[in-house]
Amino acid sequence: MSRLVTLGLIQMSMTSDPAENLEKALGKVEEAAGKGAQIVVLPELFQSRYFCQRPDDAFAFERAESIPGPTTEKLSALATRLKIVLVGGSIFENAAGKHFNTSVVLGPQGELIGTYRKAHIPEDILYHEQQYFAPGDTGIRVFATPFGRIAPLICFDQWYPEVARIAALQGAEIILYPTAIGTVDAAVEENITGDWEQMWRNAMLGHAACNNVYVAAVNRCGTEDQLRFWGGSFVADPSSAILARAGDQDEVLLVQCDLDKIRPLQDAWRFFKNRKPDTYGELTMEN
Length: 287
Description:
alpha+beta, single chain, 287 residues, Nitrilase/N-carbamoyl-D-aminoacid amidohydrolase, six-stranded mixed β-sheet
């Protein structure tokens, strides 16, 4: 028998009202589960607008919360009722005064299976995350769930192939990327950096191809101040073929994944068996 699992990706826009965003997210999770999703994933920082566009939004810190806390309690109750694995995108976590961008994984009995704190924190125009979050201290984590082994990574982690490889070596079958990324300036993209969305998608397709695992990216959508979030959430299979892709509006994307395809492909390509770790020392050296 094939090990089939259905992913539900919640692509959504956010308002300035955290309570409204949370209720919207809960409703869309219920919609996904009602359509058969077994693992449901929310976007990065789904409770608020993307406050990191400014480096000095003091009010954002007032909304940070503990884990477990009020938001995880609601997510846990919903996961219990729906009997799903719920990946709570990411939450602005206050851990005894230290702040992290943290993903939570909740099981079908409402249990907190685990947390992952975002490792790579950007600091760039309209992405001033280093003013809000400390680099994650959890390391890369893979969680065994009733529906497969998943590794939640977060947004800027997408650009680092080392992280995806570590997750795959730890046995991840599905790498999940809750995300908040969009267009900063069309002129910059045209003249300097190239098409951000294409680069973003291609980077993760490379992670799928080079590790022979499923990769799912869950972005937000809509326009917030100076950023236009393009959506484009997608799931790629272990050969990097895109199985489904969302547009640029609110969408619940459901994708069925056959986890039994992973090991035969990994055995055929032998990327892991042919690694040469003794030649990779420069990867751990500071620039």
